[in-house]
Amino acid sequence: MTNSMHILQIVRTHFVALLGENPTITALPGERDKNFGVSGRGVKAILKICSPEDLEHLQLQDRALRSLSLPSSPKVLHEEIVTLDSGALVRLVSWLDGSLWAESDSDDVRRFGLGQSVAELDRGLSQLELDRDEKTILQQTFRWNMMQATDLLDEVDLVVDFRIREICRQELTVFVTELLPILESLPFQMIHNDANERNIIVGDDTIGLIDFGDIVFAPRIVGLATAMAYAAIGLHDPIPDVIPVLRGYNQVTPLTTEEVGLIWPLVRIRLVMSIINAAVQSSSNPDNEYLLVSQNGVVQLLTTLVASSDYLALCRARDACGYEPSPRAHEVRHYLRTGSATKVVSVNSNQVGWIDWSTTTTDPRDAQSIANLMAQNNLGVMCSRYGEERDAHDNFPFDNARRRIHLGVDLFQKAGCNVYAPFAGVVEQVRAMQEVGDFGHGVLLRHITMQGTTFWTLYGNLTAARLTRLDVGQSVNAGDVIGQMGQPMENGGWPPHVHVQVLTDLCGMGIDIFGTAPQDEMTLWRSICPNPNLFLGIASGDTSSDAHAGRPTEILNRERTVRLSRALSLNFREPLHIVRGEGAYLFDIDGRSYLDLVNNVAHVGHGHPQVVAAAARQMYELNTNTRFLHDAIVEYGNNLTATLPDPLSVVFFVNSGSEANDLAIRLARAYTRARGWISLKHAYHGHTASVLDISPYKFLGAGGAGAPSNVRVAELPDAFRGRHTGSAAGQAYAKDFAKEISDLDEPLAAFIAEGVVSTAGQVTLAEGFLAGAYEQTRSAGGVCIADEVQIGLGRLGERFWGFELHDVVPDIVTMGKPMGNGHPLAAVVTTPAIAAAFNNGMEYFNTFGGNPVSATIGQAVLDVVFDSRLQSNAQTLGSYLQDQVRVMQSTHGLIGDVRGHGLFIGIELMREEEPAGDVVANVIEYAKQRGVMLSSDGPDNNVFKIKPPMVVQREDIDMFLDVFDQALTHLS
Ligand code: PMP
Questions:
Q1: Under 8 Å between Cβ of 198 and 98
Q2: What is the DSSP letter of 574?
Q3: In degrees, to the nearest 5, what angle opens at C-alpha 577 toward C-alphas 572 and 578?
Q4: Residue 628: CA atoms inside 13 Å, Cβ hemisphere, count?
Q5: Residue 485: helix, strand or coil by DSSP?
């Protein structure tokens, strides 16, 4: 008896404390257990009545659920599993709010989320240490364990439909012989194994997985295949449409190429299991409707998948996981690059011209104009570029505006000109494709690389006549005539040319394969169809780059997440796709402009003409390393050191701020023969291994491993919000500093600090601190390093360098960011004594550092800073900005502090003594919408960092003030 009264009795006896005397009870469907929704006293739960023989498995499910701390998985609400008088077992788990996957609309975002949830669950379950008995329980005979799918071969005859039965048999046979051995070699773990549409709960922010009754011990790819199989049911174009699940999974835990290679066959196996299990169960239990749910969709999906190209599906899966889509492409490209191809058309190399049919050009599209152009320029052939974005194919019936990226190279000559096979091969297909815009008459040749990889070349738009002489299966030699260029009337309506395309697979389409790719799939198709110019070898053909077609912003972002490390972050909730910069402004792909208050690297303004011209001139003239005499490095060295006080006079040119600080470490160690180190709290000095070790911002931040044993972190001398405030704060912090020196276990090599600490939130060191710290450092035998990478070169207005604000002279100065206006140029300047200690016989060579181009650029930047009086501009506009924001403080109580020097300003938002980082984040997004680019920093991310190119104007500052005022009005 499992009616509501009975359940009520159970609740009253065992769960009254949790659910009260009178919970609401609803029966839920279930295949094996009897499930009831019960809610009372604000608690929503599922009560499960299970069979006694499942006890061990149920205990394992509880263990799994208890070990997971995911919002997307249910919690166990019972203490012990309850045994009823009947022997039946009762469990109580929490109810996940949301709707069933089966009853919600699924889109790419949800499918991506599903993949992420499955991956997070797998990651959680993989942490469970299972003993031998537990593994045995998870591997007992179970018809939903794919690792036992072989057994289903005995039952395949129960599938009624002959066609489906044979598909099932075929898939299972491949499974046993090919897939199972690979699966068995993969790592096993506990997996959920049943992400079907009735076990997925779509919540507001999470996608949850319920019902752990099918957990097994298997490779994780089995569970992902299960999720993908169910998620693909009913989708319009199931393979591409379900890919977001895979992408979501891979983003949480990357899949190996081996796993990716298994995914589609295992998706099919899961469908086969579903079909056979339904056949078995409905033959013995014809009344259970649950068994038949979704069987039609399963059969239809399996039929579609079986009829689809395995290779194309594999390419899509690899693409989603960041692997080169076509697994053969690597080898085929190698062969095309190195093999000895003969000419496809006869022409002298000096008679080759380019024709550009990409969307924005006016190059001729019609036969007569092309012929005229060739005659005028005495050209034997005109070539189009691979990968160009064309609209010429937009209106053809077999095509649509989505497919615009040309996958071949077109060679235009006169009608009747011969086309030759570049490699030996076999005729795979010969076809007339007469529709307007199609390939006309075409030939497909099959070839093989030295390593035995098959690939194809396709020649389209030929005459009918010649083709009749080619038989499918016939061998051709390199240099054999395989066709002639057709007239428009027989070549699909195009000017006479041959379309040459390379194929690493026919993707089930044969000669009808796409000649153009959709823009959002261009990476996929360019891998399936590599650039024919690899063997055509036509100079300046952009053989591996694609100068003509950009990716849509969304695709760019998606590809970036797999191509680049995700540790490389992007600005803004919706990243900007910036394509151009000028002065203090940046422009996105849609032409929107943004006032750039973020990029202090573009010191003299984006694309400064004087800097660009100097760089281009020197690149034409000479670029080599520093082992030759050259004026530029010495001239720039002189002018740069002239900005520094005595005795800072010896310069090393390097390529980044991190490299500068790394060298500073070496210099300090060479001079002091010590390794002890002091940095300031929240300070950042770069990203290499050595400088991470002296950057508390990193080693004490997310992912950091704490301070190395030779490094002590001195308190940040912040007079606004720090341990000491007021006018004597600097002295007090200097006193604290002494403790850090005495705390070191080894002699002190150096103390490093910026004059204004940007990563701490634009904090200017409290007055008097630096002088005190320098004195103590030196009396302990250490040297003093000023990191000017972020703040130097006139930005601070009052003084050219940050340390000058504090009336000290460092022993080593490191500089970078603004020096090359974006060109990688950085430097270390030190004293002759320290430089001499470093010169111990070991050569210092830096391949790029200080080369003629870098030195010339550095000099040009310095010239602009001086000629345009940018330091003075920084001082005037910076003071103006700070004054105006101070005025706003009376209307906007959130503005806690305004500080900084010149165009290096911090605005700190506080709400009742608490950092208001949330408002800062919203203001940044608000300002972005209105064309002003802002960024934030500080330990609580509640400080706006304002550090624009030094060429900003008063109007720009006014625009910022306006937007900032509005933002605070709207958002506080
Ligand atoms: N020092 C400071 C103060 C910096 O701000 C940075 C970069 N943000 C670096 C060093 C490292 O410079 P780079 O990124 O050029 O290696």
A1: no
A2: S
A3: 105
A4: 10
A5: strand
pLDDT band at 367 (very low <50, low <70, confident <90, very high): very high
pLDDT per position as a tens digit, 266-285: 999 999 999 999 999 888 87
Report pLDDT digits (tens) over 305-315. Answer: 999 999 999 99
H or E segment to which residue 955 belongs: helix 954-971
pLDDT in tens, 732-764: 999 999 999 999 999 999 999 999 999 999 999
Q: Rounded to the nearest whole angstrom, what is the distance from the C-alpha of residue 659 to the centroid of ligand 1?
A: 9
Token couple for 528: 């399936």
Task: Using most ligand atoms within 8 A of CB, pick from 684, 758, 788 the residue to mutate for ligand 1.
Answer: 684
Ligand 1 atom showing the smallest separation from residue 656 Cα: 15
Residues with CB under 6 A from ligand 1: 656-658, 661, 684-687, 754, 758, 787, 789-790, 816
DSSP line for 606-624:
BT-HHHHHHHHHHHHH---
Which residues are registered as beta bridge partners of 354? 383
| Ligand 1 centroid – CA 730 distance (Å) | 25
102 secondary structure, DSSP code: G
d(C-alpha 834, C-alpha 811), whole Å:
8
Contact 313, 327 (CB under 8 A): no
CA angle 755, 761, 767 (to 5 degrees): 35
Kindly state the tokens that stand for 899: 């500080």
For residues 180 and 173, give the distance between their C-alpha atoms in angstroms, rounded to a whole number. 10
Q: Which atom of ligand 1 is nearest to the CA of 659?
A: 16
* CA dihedral over 619, 621, 627, 631, signed as positive or negative: negative
**How crowded is residue 108: how many other Cβ atoms within 10 Å of its Cβ?**
14
Q: Decide: 646 and 880 in contact? Cβ < 8 Å.
A: no
Q: Residue 214 carries which DSSP code?
A: T
Residue 683 alpha carbon, nearest atom of ligand 1: 3
User: Quick check: 531 and 502 in contact, CB under 8 A?
Assistant: yes
Look at ligand 1, atom 10, and give the residue with the nearest C-alpha: 685
The 3-class secondary structure across 358-415, one letter per residue, is ECCCCCCCCHHHHHHHHHHCCCCEEEECCCCEECCCCCCCCCCCCEEEECCEEEECCC
Question: By C-alpha distance, which of 770, 776, 768, 707 is closest to 738?
Answer: 776
Ligand 1 nearest atom to the CA of residue 658, by list position? 16
Give 789 Cα–ligand 1 centroid separation in angstroms: 6
Distance 656 CA to ligand 1 centre (A): 7
Nearest residue (by CA) to ligand 1, atom 13, is 657
CB 648 within 8 A of CB 809: yes
**Count of C-beta atoms within a 10 Å radius of residue 451:** 10
Which one, of 443, 432, 444, 418, lies nearest residue 490 by Cα? 432
Which atom of ligand 1 is the closest one to the Cα of 686? 11
